[in-house]
UniProtKB/TrEMBL annotation:
Pfam families: ADH_N (PF08240), ADH_zinc_N (PF00107). Keywords: Metal-binding, Oxidoreductase, Zinc. Belongs to the zinc-containing alcohol dehydrogenase family. Its cofactor is Zn(2+). This is Zinc-binding dehydrogenase. The keyword Oxidoreductase applies. Gene3D superfamilies: Medium-chain alcohol dehydrogenases, catalytic domain, NAD(P)-binding Rossmann-like Domain. The lineage of its organism: Bacteria, Pseudomonadati, Verrucomicrobiota, Opitutia, Opitutales. It comes from the Bacteria. One of its GO terms (molecular function) is oxidoreductase activity, acting on the CH-OH group of donors, NAD or NADP as acceptor. Residues 16-323 form the Enoyl reductase (ER) domain. InterPro entries: ADH-like_C, ADH-like_N, ADH_Zn_CS, ER, GroES-like_sf, NAD(P)-bd_dom_sf, Zn_alcohol_dh. It comes from Horticoccus luteus.
Amino acid sequence: MTLPARMKLLQIEAPGHAAWKDAPLPQPAAGEVLIRVLGVSTCPHWDMHIFDGQPMFPGMKLEYPYLPGQPGHEAMGEVVALGADVTKLRVGDHVVAWRDTGKPRRGFYAQFNTFHENDLLVLPATLSPAAVASLELAMCVEVSFQQLAALGGPLGRIGLSGLGPAGLVAVQLAKAHGASEVIAFDPVAERRALALTLGADRALAPDAAQWPASRQSDALDNAIDLTGVPPAIEFLMDRTRRCVTLFGVLREQVRFGTQHLFGPGLILSGYGDHNRAAAETALRFIVEGKLHLAPLITQTMPFTRYAEAVDLLRRKQAIKILFDPWA
């Protein structure tokens, strides 16, 4: 294809204000490829924090105008040009970003973006943007299952706290990894209903009266918290025999008490490292039909409606928004 000299990209110029504007077409550096972006999905907490002028992580420094194309990182597209020394990809390959390195650089909220070939996976051309753009999220959640797998033994009955995008992915990954029962907790009835359609055996409100605290009778074998909220984490800790692993961004302290020391002692596990094996596992589950990301997409929008999209996320009227850079 003939490449244009210019393109459109999104830039958050100040808290609460984003512009869809002209920019030069980027050129791939050594080891990079140029991607024509076909679809990119929101990462709700990133979008809400950055658009609202709040740090995503404690101590994070924000400067505006924010980096062009950021915080877009859940993206798929087609390789249209190669930089020097590229050996793994070819023009025409459909690819998906499997990790965000965290280094300051342009993001995928754009019509084109450059990315290092090591940070991309080749896709079957039949996979739609909705089906695979959020692979990076699935990779992140798969890391928590790697943490549990490192302990050995079956998952058994697993509890999942929080049914945002990560929790809905975790429901499916738990089934794909052979959990005997998946019990999901969330206060929002609509998200509990969606979790049931995606494979949860039970979806409950985190109500202590409905599920009294006990690490003995009727307890969970393992659990993953996907909220980062101490009451949600402690709810799982009080009802889990072996391990609670943390996925959500933790901003406050969690109480580990005497009730967690014995019978046997509860393991409270932190997060692991993003890795290609986790991404490849998630992609394999997508191809095998065990992981469905399209149901997480509430709506597809053009970037000219970015502020509206973030507001839908903020009011929990959308789980994820898929942006079409060409709409």
